[in-house]
Design goal:
About 20% of the residues are buried. The chain is about 70% helix and about 0% strand. It has a two-stranded antiparallel ribbon with strand order 1-2.
Amino acid sequence: MDTILAPIMWLVSYVIYGVHYGLTSLGMDAGSGPAWVLSIVGLTIIVRLIILPLYNKQINATRQTQVLQPEIQKIQKKYKGKKDQVSQQRQQEEMTALYKKHGTSPFASCLPLLVQMPILFSLFRVLYAFPAIAAGERGDLGPINSDVAVEFENSTVFGAPLSASFGAAGETADPLNVRIVAAVLVLFMVVSMFYTQKQLTMKNMPDSAMDPNNPAFKTQKYMLYGMPFIYLFSGAAFQVGVLVYWAAGNIWNIGQQTWFIRNNPTPGSQAYRDREERLRKKRLRKGLTEEEIETLEAEEASRGQRQQPMSKERAKKVGVDKDDPQPVHSPEEPEEDVDPSEVRGKDGLTDAERAKKRYERRQAERARSKAKQEQRNKKAQQNKKKRNF
């Protein structure tokens, strides 16, 4: 296993050593002590910053999967009971097309975990190698030589050596203390993981996706209770240093996830309603009236809605010329009668007329963008036909 993980182990050892060097340069004591413990925390922060874009993709993918559940269930219902190969293939093609259309993937939510697991196993193997390096039974690992390994071995978390574990506590000078420290770290890891999963499942999931018959909701509930339960037992095999890394990572997750859910919640979720209520109270404190707040909320909702693609027949019905797009009104949106007694601004327009113009401008921009995209697709298709000849 060390052969496979050797490059990552080498990188992990350099990061730990580099963070330790930086901490001692800032005034912390060199040799054995808290600097080595904080170097593992520093490794956690560096890894989390690196995978931050993947975390954003994970949150967006999870959100899109939740929103898409009604359409996914329609496809599953369409092919329910059809076990032949052709039906199964068509179902898979429709599911793939649906994910592609909305720019997500069912595997995108696993990316941060897939990236972190090799680092976690590498850290486990690095800490496992420290006693052998300190005793001279193994060669250096990157910058970690026997002297550095001895310093690390003598560094503790509340008296528990960083390389000790709950399962191997009998090999240490104070087994009971090692087991207590490891048990507390494992318990914290389980509770914090349960809390983060609870936030995603119950607070940031739209009401439409919280159907007990929804497969995605069932999976989320299994993960909510299953994953912490698994780590409760597997944590006994991890060294104290690995548990420190994991605990620091969970603290980071809680802060990062809390900020994300508070500022960018899933529409239709409890977190989204809480955010709307906070914005409303903030606008009331600024002196806006209820009517002005409702207008702002309506505009924000219209900006957040995705414009659905139209076929030529539907475009013809609503009066949109796809070859020469112009801002037009749908017959479902009748003209509003403007009361002449309404207050007009310096531009000579009422609030309703001004909102209407903004709507028309947005519609025109969307129509132009769609027309350009169709022209590009048409040109690409023509070029493809020419190449076929």
